[in-house]
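Dear support,

Our group has been running a series of protein-ligand predictions, and this particular one with zinc ion is the one our PI (initials K.S.) wants archived with full inputs and outputs. We had some confusion internally about which version of the output was final, so please treat the block below as the authoritative record. The input we submitted was:
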Amino acid sequence: MEAEKLESSRYRGDLDLYHALKTHPRLGKRIEDAKSAILRRTIRSQLLHSMVRVDARLLPQIARSMERLQTAAGLADAIEMYVFESSAVNAFITRGRSHLFVALSSGAINILTERELEFVIGHELGHAMFDHVDFTVGHLLEDNSIEPRDRMQMFAWKRAAEISADRMGLIFCGSLEIAATAMFKTLSGLRLDGVAIDVAAFAEQWDHLMAEVVQSGDADGHWQVTHPFPPLRIKAMQLFWRSDYFEDAVGLRLEGSRPSLASIDQETAKLLAMMDPLARDDRNTGNPLLVDFFQWGGLHIALSNGELTPREKDRLAHIVSDDRMNAAINTRPTVDSTLERFVDCLKRRDQRLKPLEIHKIMEGLLHIANADGQMDANEKQALINVAGTLGVMPLAVEMMITKFPIEG
Ligand SMILES: [Zn+2]
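Confirmed final output from the archive:
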């Protein structure tokens, strides 16, 4: 397949956010500066010290897959592959001075079949093809001078980028079932030995998974901030698989007409918006909006370690607007009154918050609590207090905090 054709599979939301960040008045130059730092670093010697390099004699099958996919992807860069010790199924791609490096966990090699690995490798190569590898925002996510709002935008882009990478993995492994099975194995750690998973059933798990993760303390660490939840990724792949792109590129003929890639991108954007705290809440019901929850929850956290500083005020105003912030400050808010207001918003709703809405509120508040690059004991307690009113257990909050921010 020609490079252009592959390029055109890129998810529109990824491309739009990528350009928005590139020309961003506060972030654009800093992302550009990080690029030159990448080209100077000596990551290869670190990899050679800590991992096993995949070589055609050691792991011939994987080396062959890699070669085939690199040719198909039209990537001219020299690529080296490494294996690192971890029972979890995991992979990443990064750039050093002279090579691209793709690293796979030993768990991925032990558990995934050859074609499932091609999905994973294809996904990683997708990150290289779409310039995600050189467009690094990871260091900025940990920089305490970054506004929470800007940080949320970077996270939104990273999630969108995963959708583009998944599409490439899907194109290269050539089967929705295989892609879904690879993802299911990654998530569950189960081997499944030859059993293909039911794609539709997996996609349906979305609501259950959300409820499980948000409202039970023992969910097993799937609070992924930068990666969209796996069922969402499956849903997005399902949509893409049905699009006219797939018919044109792969010559896959199915009965009935295929929706255009542009309309599939719009559907996908709706799915991703469900995870984005900044996405507008357009229900017109008179119910308190998510922004009300950010306002009072955010103030509760900001006040938990003393006075509201001008900087904290600025940051909150950035998310909820100056007018709202000034009005809130006129009520002379205290730690207690802000939590009461938050609970009040909950009570005024005519139906319970959905797991997704809870997820958005928690994620937004986490960004606010992390605004100064760290979270002290008071802020953490304040976050736990707010979470408690939403039915989120303290253990789940701890888990979110340790997973934040996540790179991958
Ligand atoms: Zn990825």
